[in-house]
Amino acid sequence: MKTHLIAVSLLACAFSLPASAESSSLSVKAEGPVVISGATSLTVHSAIVGRDFVVEVTVPRTPPILPGQTAPVIYVLDGGYDLAGPAGWLLGAAGTMAPAYVVTVGYPAGASARGVDLLSAPATSPDGIAQKGGGAETFRRFLVEELKPFIEARYPVDGNRSILFGHSLSGIFTANALASHPMDFAGYLIASPSVWADPGVIDRLHGLQLGVPPRRVFVGYGAKEEAYMISGARQVVQALSGLQGILIQAKAFEGEQHISYYPVLPNAAFPFLLPRDNVMRRPSPIELPVGRLKRYLGVYELADHRRVAITEDEDGLVFKVDGRDEAGLLAEAVDRFFIRGVDANIVFDAGDGAAKEMAISLNGRTARALRVQ
Fold it and tell me: CB-based contacts of 28: which residues, under 8 Å, 6+ apart?
């Protein structure tokens, strides 16, 4: 009888489809999984843990291009639910936080071991879900001893400005990482921590003794979560409040459940954890005489010997650093240019002849480039 009812329901759904669905002129040219723009996916093997992990790296819209320049990095557990990388990219591009690399850590399909990796000991939740636990310290070592050095060798990131971000079981892992090894990361985003799995973390957090520089900590949770989850998050906030060496910010997301606030969590947390060093300028463009623009054309060289080419097209001047995409330059004053939507400006030396050098400022850092052609 149940099978018959299901069949009837499916037939009803089929007959209720709009007639245009069959007569559409559209045809599928290609179909496949969505790839996050600007992200690289790596499957890595941890010798410490003895298992594989999927690591996805999202590069900021304005990555470091100047000699010696680096950017902060956010390590996000549970794969960031495929949201953290794009959120970090957008917030950095909008100028609301320091542009940062976002590195998400997850598992190959069908091989999740979060119930082992994120807890130090077995635990059962109030709703009866058992977690095996026992792998937290090994997983922490994977992050600190293998993944961080790997990322720092592969990308221009600043290891002293790294953030650890965890939610739920990975939230209690993040809280424990702060309690046991606070200097591993410069900041911690603790979201809906499963304090029920390790209540002793509260005393360990309360006993933290830190110096300088202070650790930044953001604690978030949904205001409509289960009472025991809200209580756990509030206990973490209370344990950390007033401690020397801790800068804390907390937020209860009104009307939100355990996972529903996750999409807006980066908007609240990332700017606090990684504030910009400078205010992003948004100048208005002006027109310069074509003859004036000619003095800037040429090839310049940075201290690390990379070349910077200034060319022109129908829209004006074009700026390109070796190995990077080109960008259009807009004048904001004589000898001074900017790139729209990016915290970057280029200032040429004053004069009437060919420019001899330029000063390139990007995300608050400046470097000189001297004309070579």
Answer: none
**Pairing relationship of beta strands 123-124 and 130-131 according to DSSP bridges:** antiparallel
pLDDT tens readout for residues 85-140: 999 999 999 999 999 999 999 999 999 999 999 999 999 999 899 999 999 999 99
Cα 183 to Cα 171: distance, rounded to the nearest angstrom:
17
Amino acid at residue number 165: F
Burial 94-114 (b: 16+ CB within 10 A, else e): ebebbbbbbbbbbbeeeeeeb
Q: What is the three-class DSSP state of 366?
A: strand
How far apart (Å, rounded) are the C-alpha atoms in residues 319 and 49? 45
**Global confidence as pTM:** 0.90
Q: What is the CA radius of gyration of the chain?
A: 26
Alpha-carbon span 174 to 20, nearest angstrom: 51
> From CA 178, how far away is CA 180, in angstroms rounded?
6
CATH architecture of 39-273: 3-Layer(aba) Sandwich (3.40)
Contact status, residue 209 vs residue 183, Cβ threshold 8 Å: no
- Token duo for residue 97: 């936080």
Give dist(CA 187, CA 181) in Å, integer.
Answer: 12
Q: How far apart are CA 324 and CA 289, in angstroms?
A: 28
93 forms bridges with which residues in the sheet? none
**CATH 2.40.128 fits domain 290-371:** yes
